[in-house]
Design brief:
30% of the residues lie in helices and 24% in strands. With 431 residues, the protein is of the alpha/beta class. Strand 7, helix 3 (94-103) and strand 8 form a beta-alpha-beta unit. Bound molecules: shikimate-3-phosphate. Shikimate-3-phosphate binds next to helix 5. Residues 11-426 form the Enolpyruvate transferase domain. Pathway: Metabolic intermediate biosynthesis; chorismate biosynthesis; chorismate from D-erythrose 4-phosphate and phosphoenolpyruvate: step 6/7.
Length: 431
């Protein structure tokens, strides 16, 4: 599907409630399925990725009903899951795949996983190796890729390890396995990654101890059903926050955005770059804090992004690169080699697509160097490509707003993975 993008926007105004957080939506189904009782989730993100997690649990016999943005789950516990009729199609969803590998690693029946072309190229050994060390039996293609099968397994041993990649997906998979092990596990992170699993585990009545970067997890299976609203996804709000910053004469309120401090790195980067925004109406009484982010247009200056901050902005780096093309000076992004194993190699896809529009970007094995500011317009092509990657497609739609020339986005349907209503939301706030 091709999509003609809005170019040369005059301003963005109004209030937008962005869709529910993708990471929290996935986890809400998982904990809802494990808990005793009926879990009710409001503002659930109905995107392709989250539907995969929902469908996976339905295939394992968990009663789940949908009414608008509300999902109701009747929990069955680890012990109540049933053998699926066929292998699970996880589409494009790395989060479903990795977390479910851990969650399903001790079941009295085998479970097959497969996915789309992009997911089938993403590394799974990072989860399979530590889970195998715990006793899981996973047979993957070339020991690393989908399609794979989780074989019948009745015991998991606890582990004490430093997780070799800073990844919330790997950490979460190991937490789900540790809950089912026959002893206490200790997991140490290389850097703090998003902590939604830990928070939700406690919310559902579980116990997890955190000391610095080390988590201690005892075996446990008694979780209590919950009712809550998923906050807006900071990673989705980020597209509009940057659009309102870069398109002159804008002022936009992004309502009830998740403000978990393992997810707000993008706001810190924007702030260093000189962006003009404020946060209001913060609700920090809930497990996941949220609030309104009000953004006014402003000029940006270059910054550097590296080290421990990378995990906190990992999904927003394509947007930081776009911001840097409009900022005065040289922006350098380092320590971000993980970008090469996302839905696409995001170092290459960002550089390839933004260069078409005149951006000056050098790539490095672990990041990018961006020289700004450069005006954006169709220089080598007026067709930009999502490469089947939702965050690349969405970033390009924001780039188009600054472009003097009309652009067409190819493979625009990729955005359905995290933000199916993006173009409708954009129309609502454009002047
Ligand atoms: C996610 C963790 C991140 C992120 C992904 C969602 C999660 O991946 O990129 O979009 O929900 O745990 P890694 O933890 O593998 O970096």
């Amino acid at each position: 599907m091709d999509k003609v993008l809005v170019a040369a926007a005059r301003g963005l105004h109004g209030t937008l409630t962005v869709p529910g957080d993708k990471s929290i939506s996935h986890r809400s189904i998982m904990f809802g399925a494990l808990a005793k009782g009926t879990t009710i989730i409001d503002h659930f993100l109905f995107s392709d990725d989250c539907r995969r997690t929902l469908a996976a649990f339905q295939a394992l016999g968990v009663p789940i009903t949908v009414d608008g943005e509300r999902v109701t789950i009747t929990g069955v516990g680890f012990a109540g899951l049933k053998a699926p009729q066929q292998a699970l199609d996880l589409g494009n969803s790395g989060t479903s795949t990795r977390l479910l590998l851990g969650l399903f690693s001790k079941q009295p029946f085998p479970i097959g996983f497969f996915g789309d072309a992009s997911l089938s190229k993403r590394p799974m050994k990072r989860v399979i190796a530590p889970l195998s060390q715990m006793g899981a039996k996973i047979q993957a293609t070339d020991t690393d890729f989908l399609p794979l099968t989780i074989a019948t397994n009745t015991t998991l041993q606890p582990v004490e390890m430093t997780i070799p990649v800073a990844s919330a997906q790997v950490k979460s998979a190991l937490i789900f396995a540790a809950l089912q092990a026959n002893g206490t596990s200790k997991l140490t992170e290389l850097a703090q990654t998003r902590d939604h699993t830990e928070r939700m585990l406690r919310q559902f009545g579980g116990e997890i101890d955190k000391n610095g970067l080390t988590l201690t997890i005892k075996p446990q299976s008694q979780f209590v059903a919950q009712k809550f609203r998923v906050p807006g996804d900071m990673s989705s709000a980020a597209f509009f926050a940057l659009a309102a910053t870069l398109v002159p004469n804008s002022q936009l309120r992004l309502a009830q955005v998740g403000l978990n401090n393992t997810r707000t790195g993008f706001l810190d980067v924007l702030s260093r770059m000189g962006a003009d925004f404020r946060v209001e109406d913060v609700d920090s009484k809930t497990v996941e804090a949220s609030g309104d982010v009000i953004v006014t247009s402003s000029k940006l200056k270059a910054t550097t992004v590296h080290g421990a901050e990378i995990a906190n902005v990992i999904d927003e780096i394509p947007l930081i690169a776009l911001a840097a093309t409009q900022a005065e000076g040289v922006t350098e992004i380092s320590d971000a080699a993980e970008l090469r194993v996302k839905e696409t190699d995001r170092i290459e896809t960002v550089a390839t697509e933004l260069r078409k529009l005149g951006a000056n970007i050098e790539t490095k094995p672990d990041g990018m160097i961006i020289h700004g500011p450069t005006p954006l317009r169709a220089v080598t092509s007026d067709r930009v490509d999502s490469h089947g990657d939702h965050r690349i497609g969405l970033m390009l739609a924001v780039a188009a707003l600054l472009s003097k020339s009309q652009l067409t986005l190819t493979d625009a349907a990729a955005i359905n993975v995290s933000y199916p209503n993006f173009f409708t939301d954009l129309e609502q706030v454009l002047d």
